[in-house]
Amino acid sequence: MSKAVAKAVADFLSASSKDFLVILKKETLVKEANVPLLEQWLKDQILYFGGGSAHTSEWVSLFVDNTRAGGGGIGNLLAIIQRVRNAIIDFCAGKLPGISDTDLCRTVLDYESEFIKRVCDTYTEAERKSAASAQRRQKTLANSMHNAFVTLNMDGIIDLSNTYFSNIVGMAEDRIPGADFLSLCQPDIAAEIKRELRQKRGSSARTFNGNLVTALGATTAVQFWVLPIFDPQGFRSGLAIAMTKLDPGVRFPGSTFSSLVEEIAGVLGIGLYVIDANFRVVSANEMGHFFAEVGQEDNSFHCCHNLDEQGRCRDCLRKRVFETGMPQHATVQFKIPSGDVRWVEMTCIPFRNEQGAVTHVAKLVRDVTEQKMLEGQLLQQQRESLVWHLAASVAHQLSNPLGVMIGFAEMLSQGIPPNRVHEAVNTILRNGMRCKEIVDNLMEFGHGASGELVPTDLNALIKQRVSAVYAETRIEWRLADGLPLVLCAPDQMALVLLHLVDNALWAAKSRVIIQTEPGENAVLVRVIDDGPGLAEQYRAHMFEPFFTTRRDQGGVGLGLCLSRRVVELHRGQLTLDESVSPGTCFLISLPAAGHLQPAEEPVESPEPAAKTGRRVLLVEDENDQLYLLALALQMQGHQSDTAKTGSHAIELINSFKYDAAVIDMLLADELGGKDLYKILQRADPQLAERTLFITGDTMKYETRRFLQEIKRPYLEKPFMIADFTTEIERIIQTPPRPTP
Hints:
Layout: H1 3-15, H2 17-28, H3 35-49, H4 57-69, H5 74-92, H6 101-144, E1 148-152, E2 158-161, H7 163-169, H8 187-198, E3 206-213, E4 219-230, E5 236-245, H9 259-267, E6 271-276, E7 281-284, H10 288-291, E8 301-302, H11 317-324, E9 328-335, E10 341-352, E11 358-367, H12 369-414, H13 418-447, E12 454-456, H14 458-465, E13 475-479, E14 486-488, H15 490-507, E15 512-519, E16 522-529, H16 536-539, H17 559-569, E17 573-576, E18 584-591, E19 615-619, H18 623-635, E20 639-643, H19 646-655, E21 660-664, H20 673-683, H21 685-688, E22 691-695, H22 701-710, E23 714-716, H23 721-733
Parallel strand pairs: 13-15, 19-20, 19-21, 21-22, 22-23
Antiparallel strand pairs: 1-2, 1-5, 3-4, 4-5, 6-7, 6-11, 8-9, 9-10, 10-11, 12-14, 15-16, 16-18, 17-18
Helix pairs in contact: 1-3, 2-3, 2-5, 4-6, 5-6, 12-13, 15-17, 19-20
């Protein structure tokens, strides 16, 4: 699309928008209620022709939905688009100075092709969702029936079935659609169904008796009720078949378990059967037959949480009912004949004789596999929603500082007054640090509470890792004596406390109180400030990712969210104590660890020796990052050789002797950082001991596990160059371990 022509079209439509809207309303035949939407659409199109990004997704969706609601299809949509295209051409033709009608038509047609693609994609998705919704409605209606039910196409293939049919034939519901119904019938019934499928006319229902074949090869006598299905043109498109079992099974004799109870359980969609003291099934309702065969020993179920090495139940519900005389309930697994595993809720109820002894147990069974799957889908949707929210929030948070950095870098590359260079560089550095903080916080959010949990004296942790950081006279430390130990990762808990103290100091007028005290099987920590407190409208959102009241001061809004996540992973709670007013009080509650002894304090590493020029191997596939690291090493007086692939790195290792190596975990070739390190361990064990990893991939479990196993230092991208050079000096100056 010619930019000059498109710009001219945009300018002309913008200047004449009122006149063009009159034409557009007439051509598109819109209702009066849709006029504001049409006006917004025209603004977007003017923006698009002018070189901007048109935000027409909402308009396209409404355009498609309105057309479909009126009975229109894709042809109607394309016809409207064609009328709009012709209206634009007719309205602009001959009125754009220096632009021929041919160029005008070509430009508008280019736009139209892109718009048609978007409309077609939206229409296809709407049709897909509509079909899926219709299928769900049909499935719901089918499952609401109290008989087995299927629909067949003209080839006898099952399109739709309900749970009752699945129970009768002993097949998983998700495997029934697409199955041949005739193969599940005895030959005489299969021939009868074939005759029905060959019929071209006739719309009356037929009823006959016959046998279905179960997945185990057994037969079940049923009554078939067959009704033809017709398409919108009036032609037969298949059959609807309802089935009722003719053999309800053997009844348990006596009044204890009546047929009325069986019927009620069946209406509620519950399988019900009775076992005696020898665990033999003596009675079952229609659905109960699917779970147990009358006359056979009840051995269908296993408590999913308590199996022995051979997969046998150690402590099943039926046994506990006979032993205790109390009802039992559990969610267990049931393997159907096809091999699939179903989840069922099972309740066992005891039946007693006149002397009060338990003689029988009634087992009520409800299939909850779909419910389990739905719960899993909902959890997945929640995770995906959180991921989308985090991604959108991170993108928004990063866009401003990245824009500033790119802008100043561009100005520096084009030339900037010497007296402004220092200011520009500082601005780039400051915004880069803000990006790093956002990424670091996001990494912490992904990692959770890393580090080993050890019994810890919380007072000692506060004195050594928190109070030592502050020289503030405004802080009052109220640490109670005799606190029990807590089980925590000291580094993580110290970061949580430091963050809460920083927040309190920012909000306080004159005083901050850090208070510890014993609770009920817990240790409580309160961080209190005498500031104005948190406004009521913010309290519901304060633990949400990226929520902050200090955005204009550079606040990121991940601190409280991360702190709560860390505390919860320690099986504790971080809450706002709303009883404190004025001011704000955050309360941490951590469960006590009992009488365990605290871990020994780590020994501080010795200071590195003086710098000396050494040779370092850099393995990194990003050109700019490689150049940056090489330049940093050169400024420290070191020599560096660079490799962008693992294969090239191996060639250099075999050709030269290196004092240290820096390896990126993700490389461009098939040889990643993990594989390269394993080769290095064999080729040069001493260099492997002097390896520093750099990575932006520590949110992956495999990467974190590898780095924990090899116990080599690593830096997460983005990192400070000062941290990089300090780590290199430490590695170089560390004496090598003797080779075994």
